[in-house]
TrEMBL record:
Top-level taxon in the UniProt lineage: Bacteria
Protein's UniProt name: Lipoprotein
């Protein structure tokens, strides 16, 4: 029985290893996602109104694109009231950029100030090249 459980566990680990992030296609631009604060989640949702296959990154053809991300975060009691519990927000943000280049890596970072989410798109030289606009939030 132990052997069955052990081999099942190893098979699961081997299966998970096959689902790592794929190699960067040099004919496309790669956009990494990074949330700047702890206890947050940032996910890729759409490219040009089409649902993404993988929520961990974007990979797009050169040119102009609109990226939509989902950012989940907690508004801390210091922004609500002294006796409040953290309030969870689930937001979508859109970032438009007109000049993605093949083979380049970009980074999309998100964070929040109180109730307001923000997103910034950086190029390889860490220059801000795009800003997110809120596309709707809800409390969870």
């Amino acid at each position: 029985m132990r052997m069955l459980i052990l081999s099942g566990g190893l098979l699961m680990l081997a299966g998970c290893a096959g689902f790592g992030i794929p190699r960067h296609d040099p004919a496309q631009a790669w956009i990494d996602l990074d949330s700047k604060q702890e206890d947050t989640a940032l996910q890729a949702l759409e490219v040009d109104d089409k649902i993404t296959d993988d929520k961990r990154y974007f990979q797009v053809h050169p040119g102009s694109h609109e990226l939509t991300v989902r950012y989940q975060f907690a508004v801390q009691p210091t922004n609500i009231g002294p006796d409040a519990e953290p309030l969870w927000r689930d937001c979508q943000l859109s970032v438009k950029f007109s000049d993605f280049n093949a083979g380049e890596r970009y980074q999309l970072q998100a964070g929040n100030i109180g109730f307001r989410p923000w997103a910034k798109l950086y190029d390889q030289q860490r220059k801000v090249i795009g800003q997110g606009t809120p596309a709707g939030c809800q409390h969870t």
